[in-house]
Amino acid sequence: MHLNLPENNKINIFPIKAFKDNYIWIIQEKNNAVIVDPGEAKPSLNKLKDMNLELVGILITHKHFDHIGGVEELIKNFPKVKIFGPENNEFRFKYEIVKEGDLISILNTTIKFYVIETPGHTLDHLVYVDSNHLFCGDTLFVCGCGRLFEGSYDEMFHSLSKISSLKSNTKIYCAHEYTKENIKFALTIDSKNKELNDRSRKLQNIEITVPSLLKDELETNPFLRAKTSEEFKLIRKKKDEF
Fold first, then answer.
1. Going by DSSP bridges, is the β-strand pair 133-137/126-129 parallel, antiparallel, or unpaired?
2. Residue 114 near residue 128, CB atoms below 8 Å
3. Is the pTM of the predicted complex or chain greater than 0.85?
4. 217-236 tens-digit pLDDT
5. Spatial separation of the C-alpha atoms in residues 50 and 31, rounded to whole Å
6. Tally of structural domains, the chain
């Protein structure tokens, strides 16, 4: 995809650990913050307080509780926060519905993101991307991809193809720390892959393995390396049983 993506050159990005292995991402520009997929309010509020930041935006990738569970509590603390997310009648908070091709701007900041729909893990799943960063929820993981709870193999394959066509130096910010298990599985599919073996060694003792570069995913992630929807399906089924 040759998209005219916005540049967010003035931001810093930090992980907030939540639940057992979730990442909530905080995007900071000066004294303002945008949070991606706040499944838990408490760690998010603690981080905002520690950094003395005003929460001005929330980006939601999909409806699962571990991605939205903290939203209402955050609204109570920051009533003016602007929320963006996919269409869902069950969300109990006010937000702006976004869809493929939308360009969103965060008030009081220069932060802008382009929206891409990535059905597969769920049908409502979408991702937020700029020229250097991709916040992809549970569509893509380091060396893995999300389980298919609602979408078809074909849909997920197509969604991952959209991501594959972004710039190879795009930093991938996914929502879970599944890397070591994913690499273990990838080696059963592609044991002679030099880059994958190197990656396995390199990440062995690293606790936070996210973000990764799209370039590395294209070289080592079996789901991005699948050439057809049928090949993707076989690999996904093997992973489900792994």
1. antiparallel
2. yes
3. yes
4. 999 999 999 999 999 999 99
5. 12
6. 2
